[in-house]
Design brief:
Elements lengths: L15 H6 L16 H17 L12 H8 L9 H14 L1 H11 L1 H6 L5 H14 L3 H4 L22 H18 L1 H9 L19
Helix pairs in contact: 2-3, 4-5, 4-7, 5-7
């Protein structure tokens, strides 16, 4: 969520003071109207990491859920980016039929993929159909192809920070109060005025739908 420009308070983006202390890359890159993907992020991250290496620096890659970092470390299935035509087709189907109907269609075409995806996971259900319509190959078939690493020569030192649930809960309450004092409500009001699709990642950021 920190990749999106329009919710720096909600997503706790680094402040001007943070950026003055140490260089930060790939924060607030995409507009809220964009539906960014891990594939696009990997291309950007690859370029930034190689730039930092060339400058003799050691990049620190910080993640949230871990999916993006997992793909950076272990590689991705070589699925091509889908065409604008395929995206429009599936988006129209989504608007007319809803995500449950699309999940049912996916279950007929690719039961293996449908089984592992929630019927409410709009982003991944849509992506699976886009891939099929664009390439003629099921997502489950693509996933049988060996992974490709963007940085095969990289050596990663992985650090996992897992606070206790009680501590995490307390920090969440403190952060919410801090966000509200900093202007989170005004941030979301400005976003709401744009009338963007509620299905977009930026519109589903934790705190945005609630506020």
């Amino acid at each position: 969520m920190q990749m999106y420009k329009n919710t720096p308070i909600i997503s706790a983006c680094p402040t001007a003071e943070d950026k003055a202390m140490v260089e930060h890359c790939l924060y607030e890159v995409w507009d809220a109207a964009q539906n960014g993907s891990v594939v696009e992020w990997l291309e950007l991250a690859n370029a930034e990491i190689r730039r930092l290496w060339a400058e003799g620096k050691v990049p620190v890659v910080v993640g949230g859920t871990g999916m993006y970092i997992d793909n950076l470390i272990n590689g991705v299935t070589p699925i091509p980016d889908t065409s604008a035509e395929a995206k429009r087709k599936v988006q129209q189907m989504l608007a007319e039929q809803g995500v449950n109907a699309l999940h049912n269609l996916l279950a007929e075409l690719d039961p293996l993929t449908a089984q592992r995806l929630s019927p409410n996971d709009t982003t991944r259900v849509r992506r699976a159909l886009e891939v099929f319509y664009d390439t003629g190959k099921l997502l489950s078939e693509w996933h049988q192809i060996p992974m490709i690493k963007k940085l095969p020569e990289a050596r990663f030192e992985v650090i996992r920070i897992i606070p206790h649930k009680d501590e995490l809960d307390e920090r969440c309450f403190i952060r919410f109060d801090k966000m509200m004092r900093q202007g989170a409500l005004a941030e979301v009001e400005a976003l709401a005025k744009r009338n963007l699709s509620p299905k977009l990642p930026a519109m589903r950021a934790l705190g945005v739908p609630e506020l």
